[in-house]
Amino acid sequence: MKKFNIGLIGAGFMGKAHAMAYATMPMFFWPAPGIPVRKIIADITEETAKDAAARFGFEKYTSDWRKVIEDPEIDIVDIATPNDTHAEIAIAAAKAGKHIFCEKPIARTSEEAKKMYEAVKNAGVKNMLAFNYRRTPAVALAKKFIDEGSLGKILNFRGTYLQDWSADPLSPLSWRFQKAIAGSGTLGDIGTHVIDMARYLVGEFDEVMATMKTYITERPVQQGTVDKLGTVKLDNSVKKAPVDVDDEVSFMIRFKNGAVGSIEATRNGWGRNNFITFEIHGEKGSIFFNYERRDELQVYFASDPADRRGFRTIYTGPAHPYGEALWPIPALGIGYGETKIIECHDFIKSIVEDTEVSPNFEDGYKISLICDAIIESSEKQKWIKVNFNK
Ligand code: NAI
Ligand code: SOE
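Above: inputs. Below: predicted complex with NAI.
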């Protein structure tokens, strides 16, 4: 079984999630397509990198991400740093011939995304973007129902991603609230997850009509480099700085295949934690998914008997996509970690089998073009066609 040496850059929230996936993937998927070896981890100081190596089980550490790229032992470069670093690291990794696993959103802008996509194409390296929610078994089951025609022609997609971790104005100004680092706010950070699911389940976007809003225009400046995602509240004595990204985005969609839809995303939705939902209506039935109840897919088929009208719940388990590799009984509980384990499996499998994996940098680039259209539509308050020829 081939070993793949991993160089992981960024030891925050996603550093932890990815390290856990590398450690555990072969315990779930056996025989594994390959064995990930946690070789080197980078963060911005020697101290944080050393601590991360001990905690996440890496053999070596560095405070300079370029050392990861230059290391001839490394097969896969994993980018788990804030969005402003993705392009520079990915382009350098592609030039060094490394396969690349990169966190979402692909980059801050479509210009950066295009350069990243071109770099991996030119280098011929495998690349994947971490829109992991589509690898929740219930979401993959929704895709199976759509592909096999159980819902018939798709008419409508209604999606949400609602959170409240930053609804408090004293929640710190982390990198996620700075355009220079994040590129955009809610749109790029969480809206893109639902755009990824909408493209995966329904198809390509044609045009959008959007409204974006920033409610909290300044916040106390974060201490330290890691975004603690609302678990820390600062007080009014801490210096404040402006928020220059969106808190909320809502948009309507016309898909190329004639379906229509809408997506709403906010980080100001008190009471909503990771409320990723979609309801899809087709000519022959409907499905509903809520990530906060992610073992479940709600379905209703038009052919169901008249005395049984109403959604019923399928609990995902071994009979469903990825199920055999996970847990032996339905509804034991699929977690965020499992989506990362599946993602890690699918990426390494694509390298071993020399196949394309999705979502990849091409998908990320197209999603960034959709985001451009959403921003333009919000500014001009009219429908904007997505320009895929930029
Ligand atoms: P975080 O703030 O928890 O951690 C970022 C880490 O990167 C910190 O340890 C920081 O010191 C380090 N870092 C920053 N610049 C660096 C550099 N130049 N070299 C080495 N290390 C550097 O951030 P988090 O939440 O882990 O986000 C990272 C990326 O993952 C972002 O692109 C974000 O959008 C994405 N993300 C994706 C999620 C998903 O569900 N797929 C969930 C959370 C984040
Ligand atoms: C914060 O909104 C965040 O960590 C996002 O960055 C992730 O992509 C999302 O999946 C969880 O929430």
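Residues 3-133 form a domain with the Rossmann fold fold (CATH 3.40.50.720).
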